[in-house]
Design a protein that fits this description.
The protein is mainly beta. It is built from 2 helices and 14 strands, in the order βααβββββββββββββ. A hairpin with a 2-residue loop joins strand 13 and strand 14.
Length: 202
């Protein structure tokens, strides 16, 4: 399939939570529990789970930490969601990715994480490269139990920028991740690199 080079379409007002100290969820978080077409947990419920779990000191202490690579434990999320406890050594990160159409949330249990995200809805098929429009980049720092929720079109990367301190976080997704698309980025140009399936990380 030939490459497509086109501007990404910005969201309209999807990132109001970026500048709010009172709320952690985005407007793109999608329908909540009880929506007639979706009976699974909403993004706000996933965020509540992530924050409660992040406050569980005994669970957080049970995660083995590795000085070189990320570590994780699979958790039971609410309402059939997929959940993970993840340890981040200094200087590690995820790279740019999406969540295959699942909504989700995460909260920091220890240390500090930086999330860089795109306030733009990307097409899910039919392209290899996109040129991002100006003004779509967002960045936030999450520490001390702070979290965020996001909808099914969210593209981001999560980083531990510390030089000497591990971070630990709790993540939850619904429906359970069907796939993850991984991207590389050079300036405004985003390139689809690979599609990962659940058997590759479980």
């Amino acid at each position: 399939m030939p490459d497509v080079h086109a501007p990404a379409r910005p969201y309209t007002g999807s990132d109001a939570a970026d500048h709010s100290h009172e709320r952690d969820r985005d407007h793109d978080a999608g329908p909540g529990p009880g929506h007639e077409r979706d009976r699974g947990p909403g993004a706000a419920e996933l965020l509540g789970f992530a924050r409660r779990t992040a406050a569980n000191a005994e669970l957080i202490a049970s995660l083995p930490l590795d000085p070189e690579g990320r570590t994780w434990i699979r958790l039971d999320g609410p309402g059939g969601s997929e959940a993970w406890l993840i340890g981040w050594p200094p200087g590690t990160g995820t790279g740019w990715h999406d969540h295959g159409g699942s909504r989700g949330a995460f909260a920091t249990a220890a240390g500090e994480l930086t999330e860089q995200s795109l306030a733009a809805q990307l097409p899910t098929e039919g392209w290899k490269t996109l040129e991002l429009a100006d003004g779509v980049d967002r960045e936030r720092t999450l520490r001390d139990g702070r979290g965020r929720a996001f909808g099914p079109h969210h593209v981001h990367q999560v980083l531990n920028l510390s030089e000497d301190t591990h971070a630990v976080s709790v993540h939850a997704y619904y429906p359970p991740l069907p796939l993850m698309r991984r991207y590389s980025r050079s300036g405004p140009v985003l390139r689809l690199e690979e599609v990962e399936r659940p058997e590759e990380w479980q």
